[in-house]
Amino acid sequence: MFTKPYRWRLALAIAATLVSSGLGLVFPQVIGKLIDASFLKIGSNDTSSLDGTVLMLFAVFGTQFLFGIAQNYSLSFVAASVVSDLRKAVYAHLANMSITFFENRKTGEITSRLTSDAGTIQGIVSTVLSNLVSQSISLVGSIIILLITNTKLSLVMLSIVPVIVVAAIWFGRRIRKISKEFQDRVAEANGHADEAISGIRVVQSFTAEALEVSRYSQAINASFEVAMRRAKLNAFFTPSVFFAMFGAISVVLWFGGRLVIQGEISPGQLTSFLFYTISIAGAIGGLAGLFSQIQEALGASSRIFELLDEKSELTETANPVKLERVQGRVSFDHVNFNYGDRGEGKVLNNVSLEAQPGEVIALVGPSGAGKSTLVTLIPRFYDVSSGKILIDGIDVRDFSLHDLRSSIGIVPQETQLFSGTIFENIRYGKPDASESEVKEAAKAANAHDFISSFQDGYETLVGERGVKLSGGQRQRVAIARAILKNPRILILDEATSALDSESESLVQEALERLMQSRTTFVIAHRLSTVRNANRIVVLENGTVTEVGTHEALMTQGGLYKDLYDLQFRSSDVANQLEMN
Predict the structure, then answer these.
(1) Is the pLDDT of residue 281 over 80?
(2) DSSP string, 199-218
(3) pTM for the predicted model, two decimal places
(4) Can you tell me the mean pLDDT for 502-521?
(5) Angle CA(379)–CA(401)–CA(444) in degrees, nearest 5?
(6) What is each CA distance from 474 to 139, 248, 463, 516, in whole angstroms?
(7) Which residues on adjacent β-strands are paired with residue 539?
(8) Nearest-CA neighbor of 202 among 215, 211, 189, 190?
(9) Is residue 481 predicted with pLDDT exceeding 80?
């Protein structure tokens, strides 16, 4: 599938390999003639035969040189192109997988398949393929020529081949299994390293460096043990093949020497036979080594195609409804949900709720009540277990994921910025946005002033995950990104909870601009920030227990009033401590 676009260039490479390898079969014949032209005319001044043979030798080498260039370049091009397309296909497939897929796998393991496994395949296409063709031609061609030249010697030399072939098959299967296990162990080690490096501040704050080093070392030691098992097989197999073949060469020299003494063949013919025997020995030894490499590559490719074979849990309809002119009415119709891999208990239980266009709906409740789960169902990061979620009266499952998510903006508590510039991160919400549009979005998000204070302004590099910016700065860049996207439906998940008072004030002001004329779902533990919501929805154990305005819920009494009073008292205590 991946080689099809390059089949003509691959055919050219194979044709060049055929010619180059075929010329290699001519070489022993020319050497034999050279020997006979030299030794059988000792004492003669006639060197014409010798001169012509040497010129023929140069012609063979020169032609091989030209076709070798064509072979190597074409195969390198095909290998690089195939692996490039393979990596892009795997990455595109991964980008469209469901959130559940990534929750069940380590990032380092996935990137290992994209890098080391794909690199192994590239080596196969670029070098092993050409060697496989050339060695096969050398082997088959040499055997045919030897059988024509002298059947007795050929049978002596070939008696060892069946043993080697059977051994190669047995060793190859073992090597393939071990190679796949090795790649799995390396991926596991990469997973540990990726987790530790991405969370290095946590690692160092808990002085857990030694623990992480120990975990990584154990994973590497496990891969080392597997590598040594593979090395033992290779260490025994390849030398055994060469021992058998060079033993056959020794027998050929002994038996052939007797035929020369008896006058049945000339010294040049014996030399040619010897070169062909060496060519066969090298081909069988080379093919044995290639066989083990191919088995390793098959192990790596199986891991890659396992990824490609993975199917997203989020299926899309064949004829999706076009989502145009979104009004922003969001309805939850008897929604139930549970995480299948975390037990069968319901996270959301019979939730029914409707947000009118432009309304601000606040979701409050204790931790684990299902607030974040509820909003992640709107952009279909997960599908409901039963019930429906509708936008403008249409089930979200009837839209394409691209259209659905294009109409939704999310500002989470933990802002995810990407390594690059501030400008690039803001424009992530609209890749074709102009510079003026980016700056207008930054101004609306209260981000323009701090960005302008940097020496490089909008071209300032934020570092991986935005580590060079403060929490408030990252959050305002994220808000600018959402403003530029201009969604009709907005989700704010604890967008200010981790900020200091000054940053929270700036971010809250930016959020109020962002929320204008948009249907907004706000999750907040600080209940003072949701007092002005059109409606407050109280969740407890996945069930809606209260719905109303702040004033109505405070008058009604219940969980919301209890949570609000508790926060108010805690705030008073904190203020008293600061004053003292």
Answers:
(1) no
(2) THHHHHHTT-HHHHHHHHHH
(3) 0.66
(4) 79
(5) 55
(6) 64, 72, 11, 21
(7) 544
(8) 211
(9) yes
User: Cβ(286)–Cβ(237) under 8 Å?
Assistant: no
* Contact call for residues 100 and 337 (beta carbons, < 8 A): no
Delimit the domains of the chain by residue range: 4-309, 320-407+489-580, 416-486
Helix (H) or strand (E) holding 387: strand 386-391
Ramachandran class of 482: left when φ > 0, alpha when ψ lies in -120 to 50, beta otherwise: alpha
Residue 386 φ then ψ, to 5°: -160, 165
Under CATH, what is the fold of the domain 416-486?
Rossmann fold (3.40.50)
* CA distance linking residue 248 with residue 168, whole number of Å: 18
Percent over 90 (pLDDT), the chain: 7
Q: Quick check: 528 pLDDT over 80? A: no
pLDDT tens-digit map of 180-200: 777 778 777 777 777 777 667
The CATH class that applies to domain 4-309 reads: mainly alpha
Look at the block and give the residue holding tokens 């060695």. 135
The fold adopted by the segment(s) 320-407+489-580 is Rossmann fold (3.40.50)
Q: 296 or 382: which carries more pLDDT confidence?
A: 382
* Contact assessment for residue 527 and residue 492, using Cβ atoms and an 8 Å cutoff: no
Cα–Cα distance measured from residue 190 to residue 220, given in angstroms and rounded to the nearest whole number: 9
Statement: residue 359 has pLDDT above 50: yes
Is the Cβ–Cβ distance between 371 and 363 less than 8 Å? Answer: yes
Q: Are 558 and 546 in contact (CB under 8 A)?
A: yes
Place of tokens 């000339």: 266
Alpha-carbon gap, residue 162 to 155, rounded angstroms: 12
* pLDDT at position 433 over 80: yes
CA distances from 52 to 42, 55, 58, 70 (A): 17, 5, 10, 28
Q: Is it true that 320-407+489-580 and 416-486 share their CATH fold? A: yes
Q: How far apart are CA 116 and CA 301, in angstroms?
A: 11
Take residue 113 and report the two structure tokens written for it.
Answer: 């398949």
Candidates 301, 365, 254, 386; CA nearest to 125 is 301
For residue 25, report the phi and psi dihedrals to the nearest 5 degrees. -75, -20
pLDDT at 286: 67
Instruction: Identify the pLDDT of residue 533.
Output: 86
Question: Is pLDDT of 162 > 80?
Answer: no
How far apart are the C-alpha atoms of 321 and 95, rounded to whole Å? 22
